[in-house]
Amino acid sequence: MEIIIRGEKSGERSTSEEILRQAYGRENEVQLASALRALAEFNPNLSIVAANGSEILGYALYARVMVSGSTVLPAAALAVMGVRPENRKLGVGERLVRHGLERCRGIKIDLVFASALPAFLARMGFQAAAPLGLKPDWAVPEGEFSVFDLSGSRLGKVSGTVTYPGPYHGS
Ligand SMILES: CC(C)(COP(=O)(O)OP(=O)(O)OC[C@H]1O[C@@H](n2cnc3c(N)ncnc32)[C@H](O)[C@@H]1OP(=O)(O)O)[C@@H](O)C(=O)NCCC(=O)NCCS
How, if at all, do strands 146-149 and 3-7 pair? Predict the structure, then answer.
């Protein structure tokens, strides 16, 4: 098996959605991803798959967010991620995160947020965001909000509210 992480191709969307449906066991995240895709600011480069040949094993989507505090800073957030149950614990999830971070770096983003899986993401260098003075503008459960600093120098200097796009607020 040779797994690569790459941008989702047109025609693969329904497979990505099926992976999300299976991973989360419900429609919410499928609908969230769909609503994020429909935004004008949607960046297809931040919609990535893990593939083994023609088979798609996993999917992740990063959304654009904004940090508003002493300064206003464009940022990104891991919005949804899923790996097929039969392909888990092979490092696919970790690679979807690491590759996604590099894509964010490629579009000059410094901070990447996440609202779930803090223990898993800590392995890749994410850290708790609340103690750094960064809080989301929607109800993320206590301790679940984390951040990765691609610049290596932003954290501790940037604080404020992380504004997520409309679909997180039911619009
Ligand atoms: C989370 C998920 C994407 C990880 O995919 P994966 O390809 O198995 O990830 P990796 O192989 O890189 O890492 C697996 C490790 O993460 C751990 N892990 C998985 N889910 C976890 C969780 N909720 N909390 C903490 N650790 C978790 C596994 O126990 C495993 O640990 P090990 O290496 O010590 O055995 C996958 O389990 C999944 O699709 N889960 C359902 C959907 C979900 O929770 N998505 C994330 C919300 S943004």
Answer: unpaired
